[in-house]
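Chain A, query sequence.
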Amino acid sequence: MSSETAVASTVNLKPGDTAPDFSAESTDGSRISLDQFKNKSNVILYFYPEDMTSGCTIEAQKFRDDRDKFKAANTAILGVSLDDRAKHEAFTKKDNLNFPLLADVDSRICNAYGVPVNPANRHPARWTFLIGKDGKIKQTYRSVDPKTHSEQLLRDIANVR
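Chain A, predicted structure.
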């Protein structure tokens, strides 16, 4: 395996599995954990390679633009990358993002969810987990188009029970 190849994980979460809890620093400096959403709202936990890059910006802007629809569907949006809080703050400010980005600088969240991380550039794969209010994974997305992913999730949330 070359250093350019993403490191595969032995974790293989699927619908019906309990989503691993986590706690991470968010854009505003507060700590966010999955547990704080349990029995309150669904969660979109989306992993992306890097702040302020083309595909990641498009994806974040789509989530930003659709946030009211997600809110109406009782669904929180949490973005996760290995970037630090300062870079998340700059990205949030530049693109007027209206949801928290989580700094997974030590890869703990990526590891817990089995998200591959490229060791050459420390970029996680673009994966998403739709988590229900019950804390169970409802859907996994391991092939994501940043331009249409938000719409896809809005359609799928309608079927979350």
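Residues 39-157 form a domain with the Glutaredoxin fold (CATH 3.40.30.10). Residues 1-7 have pLDDT under 50 and may be disordered.
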